[in-house]
Amino acid sequence: MLERKRTVGGRFAPEPPWPIKERLLQHRQIDPVSGCWNSDLRRDRKGYPQIGISGVTHRVHRVAYKLFVADPGSLHVLHKCDNPRCFNPNHLFLGTQLDNMRDSAAKGRTRGGIRKLSEAEAHKVRMLYWNFGLNQAQIAAHYGMHQSTISHLLRGETWRRSPSK
Ligand SMILES: [Zn+2]
């Protein structure tokens, strides 16, 4: 990716001449189904779009959280929507390193072959259905799964909640 640089008054400008928020929004593609703000910026190995600020590379969703919500400090910024390209502040939440590891494990992106829904992922499907108001077909499309899978899940036939502790 080419970072544009400009000299101001003969000196080297440390920041691009337009605000970071604007740069992020210039690279936003809103998914009409999920409401995800997909960034088309170049992605890192794990699929997270990146943005360069003052010569340092940052993950877009983390920068977005800081700009639109609050400084996450030492906490991790995680996705409710399970979409690493997304930087919609409403789809982001804060978590600890442990949450992050659970989340990554739940997503199972590293495994090849057939994707299997974990309990954590099933939870996200339920959330999309009940909290985001998506219908089963939309959720199935979002996850690239059959609608019957989503339907079973929502009826609790396939995934049962673990007994409360
Ligand atoms: Zn999203």
Which SSEs are present, and which pair or pack?
Elements (H helix, E strand, L loop, with lengths): L6 E2 L2 E2 L7 H7 L1 E3 L6 E3 L10 E4 L2 E4 H9 L7 E4 L12 E4 L1 H11 L11 H12 L5 H8 L3 H9 L10
Antiparallel strand pairs: 1-2, 3-4, 5-6, 7-8
Zinc ion binds next to loops.
Describe the overall structure.
The protein has 165 residues and is an alpha+beta fold. It has two domains: 18-110, Homing Intron 3 (I-Ppo) Encoded Endonuclease, Chain A (Alpha-Beta Complex); 113-157, Arc Repressor Mutant, subunit A, CATH 1.10.10. The protein has six helices and eight strands, in the order E-E-H-E-E-E-E-H-E-E-H-H-H-H. The strands form four sheets. A two-stranded antiparallel ribbon has the order 1-2. Strands 3-4 form a two-stranded antiparallel sheet. The protein has a two-stranded antiparallel sheet with strand order 5-6. The relative contact order is 0.11. The model is unreliable at 6-14, 109-114 and 160-165 (pLDDT under 50). The protein binds zinc ion. Zinc ion binds next to loops.
